[in-house]
């Protein structure tokens, strides 16, 4: 049976981080910056993903703590900024406000027919809030190529755009290959494709990035925009 969280351990984490960053605290923690911590934020996030994928509950609890540490660490550094400082309270309040405003079917009078409906409306509200023109806006190029490709195509689909991917030949061959595979074989197919590309001397990650950049341009063209 789960116990209702009190929030006290979160406050204790904030107090510990304040001590580490303050005079007389830890020299290593005191000299860190947003940029110096980037590698740890990425690493801890991937380790949390690994724990989820391996269904390791013990590891997941630990890795989520490491991710939380990064949030608190960055927030503590931000408090010290001369330009536009913010605190962990600002971070938490920001996400609370966002969750409430983007769930009008829960906190307001709106309705939602399905999870897909909720996701589409979320993206529409997000685009309006941020003044985005294109479905591709806000998708970071730094994402791994495969995730970037999935994000862009999904964004376009939620935006009501049906933009053909790549050449007709590539689409036909890809669809034919998928039609002959079960869902549990798709991963093997992608792995085999990467291996075949490598044997040919083609960097699959780089090649996909080029294709994704071209697809981003096609989506923007379909929207009547230009880069």
Description:
With 227 residues, this protein is mainly alpha-helical. It has three domains: 8-96, Orthogonal Bundle (Helix Hairpins), CATH 1.10.287; 102-131, no CATH class; 134-222, no CATH class. It has eleven helices and no strands. The protein has helices at residues 8-21, 27-30, 38-53, 57-79, 88-101, 104-107, 115-130, 145-158, 168-179, 186-199, 204-222. Helix 1 packs across helix 4 (57-79) and helix 8 (145-158) runs parallel beside helix 11 (204-222). The N and C termini lie far apart (54 Å).
State the gist of this model:
The protein is an all-alpha fold. The protein is 66% helix and 0% strand.
The assigned CATH architecture of the largest domain is Orthogonal Bundle
Count of β-strands: 0
User: What structural category do the secondary elements indicate?
Assistant: mainly alpha
- For the record, give the distance between the C-alpha atoms at the N and C termini, rounded to a whole number: 54 Å
- Please indicate the percent range of residues in DSSP E strands (runs of 2 or more): under 5%
Instruction: Kindly report the name of the CATH homologous superfamily of the largest domain.
Output: MazG-like
**Count of helical stretches:** 11
CATH-defined topology of the largest domain: Helix Hairpins
């Amino acid at each position: 049976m789960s116990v209702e969280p009190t929030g006290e351990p979160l406050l204790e984490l904030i107090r510990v981080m304040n001590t580490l960053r303050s005079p007389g605290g830890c020299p290593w923690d005191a000299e860190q910056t947003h940029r110096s911590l980037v590698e740890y934020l990425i690493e801890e996030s991937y380790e949390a993903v690994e724990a989820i994928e391996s269904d390791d509950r013990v590891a997941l609890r630990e890795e989520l703590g490491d991710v939380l540490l990064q949030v608190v660490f960055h927030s503590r550094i931000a408090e010290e900024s001369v330009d536009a400082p913010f605190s962990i309270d600002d971070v938490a309040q920001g996400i609370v406000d966002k969750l409430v405003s983007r769930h009008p079917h829960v906190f307001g009078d709106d309705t939602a027919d399905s999870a897909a409906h909720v996701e589409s409306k979320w993206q529409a509200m997000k685009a309006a809030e941020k003044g985005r023109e294109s479905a591709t806006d806000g998708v970071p190029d730094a994402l791994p190529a495969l995730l970037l490709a999935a994000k862009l195509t999904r964004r376009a689909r939620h935006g009501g755009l049906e933009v053909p991917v790549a050449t007709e030949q590539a689409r036909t061959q890809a669809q034919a290959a998928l039609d002959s595979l079960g869902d549990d074989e798709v991963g093997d197919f992608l792995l085999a494709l990467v291996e075949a590309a490598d044997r040919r001397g083609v960097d699959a990650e780089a090649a996909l990035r080029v294709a994704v950049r071209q697809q981003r341009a096609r989506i923007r063209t379909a929207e009547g925009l230009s880069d």
